[in-house]
Design brief:
heterodimer; A: alpha/beta; six-stranded mixed β-sheet; 17 helices; 22 strands; B: mainly alpha; two-stranded antiparallel sheet; 13 helices; 2 strands; Ribose/xylose/arabinose/galactoside ABC-type transport system (chain B); membrane (chain B); ABC_transp_permease (chain B)
């Protein structure tokens, strides 16, 4: 694109930001011209969201300058950035479902007439804004809760535009959208572009990035490693910029062929709201890694197998016998255990003791008062398991919230081992866990597989995914995009995940 | 854009009005079979009086509940207000205005305390307002054994017993207060912001709404409404009554009326119109049971 005016709307120079001593952004330079869609890509944790939050005034940079419309600016709050003309469309929607479109758009700035809210003006302004971006068919008096996600996204954008925004920051705007809704969003972004509005567009999805942007900045480990003209860039080139680091950690040995047992879990043609056409077989003694981007369905797969968000179609069998995984309880009866990625929210009961946490599942499926001896035996068994997972705590009566993430995770693991599960589902088993405890968890996972369990492990950390798994399946858009044997590279996984190769492409 | 934007279609009236009509119809049938009359003048007047007292409290309660909070101290505020009003009047018409002002000011102060505890001190509204209520209970139990003070005769004759046809003046007062609250909720920035804070405080904050100020104001308005209910009850009883609020179950019944009226207990959705319906429903059930001489726990 040659017709672009040279003076940038937004110029970031040498932006650095640390949290608790961890350097999240390091000397990032980035410019957005008026009417340009500038995409920012990078792996999970590369610093994209932090960078967006610096631009929209949520975070303040430790070093570097933000220049907007030719003048250096410091935004201390989101409100200050908004007033300067930077609108942000957050990844999660920030709308009130019970209020109308117009009420949401003007919240906090309701137009007044003789001291009272001018509802007519509110509605007509909103209608005008909607019409200006080609969404005039959306009635401004509708309750937002009655709109689809794509239309809510439109409302969110209009809310940002109502501030006379000249720069729009969009953080993963398509995360919640269906395919045809994505097309609508494309059209909308292009119309904004025609109005001379600059767009800073964060996305995991390379297809969108290539469809929409004029330039792409690649973030890796907090640095802007490249800024590329989209027209001159290929997908392979981009992927190469995004990955590429040495595999430094140690992982336990993979399963030898003779260690693999019979097929434990079979899923055929299964699906639900987030998943389609899932076919997979999981063998005893095997660790099956599940890769993919956030929202690709990898967590949905684990949750479906555990009955937390069950499959609505398809067949599942465990050890050859058909089962219906309608609830976590049903899954537990079938011998399935699940360690959630959200340890604080779904894993631990923070205010209860280590022992109570570890006993939770055993208590849930067995009788609450198992008679004389039974309770003592059960507790003794869990104590053994706590020792077996090498849990370090001041005592088993200690409230679990005071433990480190790694020890919390070991308690959660002990909880499931108390049920002697045959199938274990791990979702991000080492998220937020320090390096030492990480390899302890890795060893445990492998030991469980060696003892005959079938393990499915979701991970967004590519080294972990590749280092731990005997096989890897990669999810994309709720489907299994492809399967990789041991020895695959990070590039292979990314390529499947973003859709530059694979059978589900297009 | 094809047509000029129209005002949003009125939402369907809350189901509480359907329930109200059904209750009255079934109640009338049962009472008639029982040999009584539900819609006689005395019964109707009494029903509307019950509705007026409860309604004033419930309209205030609507404001805090829509804002995502709750006020469980209203029953004690009602009692306190009857006492402040009646004792200040001491049977003197001349002291009428200052007495009402004093009762309302005392109520508003309690509302302010509630609001600050809930917002600035970040105490759960349930705990905060029960706590304030218990403080008031201590004061009332300690200071009073029974009725005290004497309501000004003109107030008794006016607000207490004056009627327009079958409709007591007090019920008209309720309608006026409800209309004012409806207007505030739908036509002022404060109202819009209050509903937003109740819907999602974080969304409201990101949109530039000052949540603390909004919620404190709602608590003051709620307490003012309870204070007004106290003034009304003083006019009915002729004196201040230290336990009228709790014996009338104004705390729980006001919340019941609000919820029956379709306001979400979590906040962010609802309004005053439904609350008035909820109040009439509760008052009707009360009247039916009175006619049948059934003694249930909430019939007075």
């Amino acid at each position: 694109m040659s017709g672009l005016p040279p003076s940038p709307l937004l110029a970031l120079r040498g932006i650095g930001k640390s949290f608790l001593g961890v350097r999240v952004l390091d000397g990032v330079d980035l410019q957005v011209r008026p009417g340009e869609v500038h995409a920012v890509v990078g792996e999970n944790g590369a610093g994209k969201s932090t960078l967006m939050k610096v631009v929209s005034g949520v975070h303040q940079p430790d070093e570097g300058t933000v220049e907007f419309a030719g003048a250096p600016r410091t935004f201390r709050t989101p409100r200050e950035a908004q007033q300067a003309g930077i609108g942000t469309v957050h990844q999660e929607l920030t709308l009130l479902p019970e209020r109308t479109v117009a009420e949401n758009v003007w919240l906090g700035r309701e137009p007044l007439r003789r001291g009272l809210v001018d509802r007519r003006a509110m509605l007509s302004h909103t209608a005008r804004l909607l019409a200006s971006i080609g969404e005039g068919s959306l009635p401004p008096g509708t309750r937002v809760g009655r709109l689809g996600v794509a239309q809510q996204q439109v409302v969110e954008i209009v809310k940002a535009l109502a501030l006379d925004a000249r720069l729009l920051v969009m953080d993963e705007p398509t995360a919640a959208l269906a395919d045809h809704e994505v097309d609508q969003l494309y059209a909308l972004v292009r119309r904004l572009q025609e109005h001379g509005i600059g767009v800073l567009y964060v996305s995991h999805r390379l297809k969108e990035v290539f469809d929409l942007s004029s330039r792409i900045t690649v973030l890796k480990d907090g640095r802007a490693v490249a800024t590329l003209d989209t027209a001159d860039t290929g997908a392979d080139q981009l992927v190469r910029h995004m990955v590429g680091r040495e595999l430094s950690s140690y992982y336990p040995d993979l399963a030898r062929p003779q260690e693999l047992g019979p097929v434990r879990l079979t899923v055929r043609c299964a699906g639900n709201r987030k998943l389609r056409g899932i076919d997979l077989r999981l063998r005893a003694g095997e660790v099956l890694g599940v890769g993919g981007l956030q929202g690709s369905g990898r967590s949905a797969l684990a949750r479906a197998l555990f009955g937390a968000a069950p499959f609505s179609t398809g067949h599942v069998s465990v050890d050859g016998a058909p089962v219906r995984l309608r609830s976590p309880r049903a899954a537990m009866r079938a011998g399935i255990a699940y360690v959630s990625e959200d340890r604080k929210g779904e894993g631990i009961v923070a205010e209860q003791s280590v022992l109570d946490n570890a006993l939770l599942a055993a208590r849930a499926v067995r009788a609450v008062h198992p008679g004389r001896g039974g309770r003592g035996a059960r507790t003794a068994r869990v104590r053994e398991l706590l020792a077996a997972v090498d849990l370090r705590a001041a005592g088993e009566d200690q409230e679990i919230r005071y433990l480190s993430g790694g020890n919390q995770q070991k308690a959660v693991l002990a909880r499931w081992l108390a049920l002697a599960p045959r199938i274990l589902l791990f979702d991000e088993p080492t998220r937020g866990i320090d390096v030492g405890a990480k390899s302890a968890i890795h060893d445990l996972v492998r030991r469980l597989a060696r003892d005959g369990a079938a393990v499915l492990m979701v991970s967004s950390e590519l080294p972990e995914l590749l280092g731990m798994s005997d096989r890897v399946i990669v999810m994309r858009d709720g489907r299994i995009a492809g399967e990789l044997a041991a020895g695959a590279t990070e590039e292979d996984v990314i390529a499947l995940a973003v859709g530059t190769v694979g059978e589900a492409a297009g | 854009m094809s047509a000029a934007p129209s005002l949003p279609a009125r939402r369907t009236p809350p189901g509480v009005f359907v329930a109200l009509v059904l209750t009255l119809a079934i109640g009338w049938l049962v009472v008639t079979l029982d040999g009584g009359r539900l819609f006689s003048l005395p019964t109707t007047v009494s029903l509307l009086h019950v509705a007026a007292g409860l309604g004033l409290v419930a309209v205030g309660q609507t404001l805090v509940i829509v804002g995502g909070s709750l006020d469980l101290s209203v029953a004690y505020v009602v009692s306190l207000s009857t006492l402040v009003a009646a004792e200040t009047m001491a049977g003197d018409d001349g002291a009428l205005l200052p007495a009402i002002c004093l009762a309302l000011a005392a109520s508003a102060t309690i509302g302010l305390v509630n609001g600050l505890l809930v917002t600035t001190a970040r105490i759960n509204p349930f705990i905060a307002t029960v706590g304030v209520g218990l403080l008031l209970k201590g004061y009332l139990d300690n200071g009073y054994d029974g009725p005290a003070g004497k309501t000004a005769p003109s107030l008794v004759q006016g607000l207490g017993y004056q009627r327009v046809g079958p409709v007591p003046l007090s019920f008209l007062l309720l309608l006026a207060v409800a209309a004012a609250a409806w207007f505030v909720l739908t036509r002022t920035r404060f109202g819009h912001h209050l509903i937003a804070v109740g819907g999602d405080p974080e969304v409201a904050r990101l949109s530039g709404v000052r949540g603390t100020r909004v919620l404190v104001t709602a608590h003051v308005l709620c307490a003012l409404c309870a204070g007004l209910a106290g003034v009304y009850l003083a006019s009915r009883l002729g004196a201040g009554a230290p336990r009228v609020g709790t014996e009338g179950l104004y705390d729980l019944e006001s919340i019941a009326a609000v919820v029956l009226g379709g306001t979400a207990l979590a906040g962010g959705r609802g309004g005053v119109v439904g609350t008035v319906g909820g109040v009439l429903l509760l008052a009707s059930i009360d009247a039916v049971f009175n006619q049948l001489e059934v003694d249930v726990f909430f019939s007075r």
